[in-house]
Amino acid sequence: MKIIDQRYLESGNRYSTQPCLLSILEVDDAVTPETTEKLQKRLYHVLPGLRRLRGVVGKRADAVPPVVELVQQTAIELRRLALNDVAIGFVGVVPRMQGRYRLVLPATAGAPALAMATQLVSAMLAGRSYNLKAGLAHLRALADRRRKPRGYLMHTARTILMSVIPRRTFSMPSIFRVSMPSSSAAASS
User: Fold this and answer.
1) N or C, which end of the chain is more exposed by having fewer CB within 10 Å?
2) What is the widest separation between alpha-carbon atoms in the chain?
3) What are phi and psi of 14, to 5 degrees?
4) Is the dihedral of CA 102, 104, 105, 108 positive or negative?
5) CA angle, corner 82, sides to 84 and 46, nearest 5?
6) Is residue 91 classed as helix, strand or coil in its secondary structure?
7) What backbone torsions phi and psi does residue 46 show, to the nearest 5 degrees?
8) Could you give the CA distance from residue 27 to residue 43 in angstroms, rounded to a whole number?
9) CA-based angle 150:87:124, to the nearest 5?
10) pLDDT tens-digit profile of 155-189?
């Protein structure tokens, strides 16, 4: 399972009135319904809030396997835990591409949450452990960094050598003192 493509969609798009992230997920055919049920139980144990997300993901097609919905729900739950924000997502089939599915998440922290969800689900499918606390701390740090305004200037090698002209000595030329050369003076030179 891997993310093939991601695109940022402006507000007022096909899926939402808010900006969102459209991702294409490729899933192997080796994931059976029995494996998905075991995975779901393991995820419910690790992320108890995942049980409440049954109706949050809207389906655009009936051919979406349950593991894709589970990845989407996991991404939404991880985003909720990191940002303390409730979100809604959509899942759909990519036409004429077997094994590829559309996942739509809100734009804020959508890409890192989906990447973390695919890593978590892949690790659990393979029977490996995943450090959820470190992943959530990373998501929170990304969300905090995006929320903080950038209200300070940073000096670089280029800007430190620049001189700043004080505002009171700077003046715009007046339109009343503009002199145009005459055509005879321009022709004689």
Assistant:
1) C
2) 94
3) -65, -30
4) positive
5) 105
6) strand
7) -80, -40
8) 18
9) 100
10) 555 554 444 544 455 455 555 555 555 555 555 55
Starting at the earlier edge strand, list the strands of the sheet with 89-93.
Answer: 2-9, 20-26, 100-106, 89-93, 57-59
For 150-169, give one letter per residue: b (16+ CB within 10 A) or e: eeeeeeeeeeeeeeeeeeee
Q: Report how far residue 41's alpha carbon sits from residue 77's, in angstroms, rounded to the nearest whole number.
A: 15
Cβ atoms within 10 Å, residue 28:
11
Residue pair 130/119 in contact (Cβ under 8 Å)? The answer is yes
**Token pair in block for residue 187:** 């022709």
Q: At what angle do helices 110-125 and 66-83 cross, to 10 degrees?
A: 130
Q: Rounded to an integer, what distance in angstroms lies between the CA atom of residue 77 and that of residue 83?
A: 10
Phi, psi (degrees; rounded to nearest 5) at 97? -135, 100
Q: Residue 137 is encoded by which pair of tokens?
A: 């701390």
- Render pLDDT for 79-122 as a digit per residue (tens, 0 to 9): 888 887 777 788 888 988 888 999 988 887 788 889 999 999 99
Bridge partner residues of 106 (DSSP) = 20
Q: Tokens in use for 150?
A: 């950038």
Give SS3 for 95.
coil
Give the predicted TM-score (pTM) of the model: 0.71
Asked whether the predicted pLDDT for residue 25 surpasses 90, the reply is yes
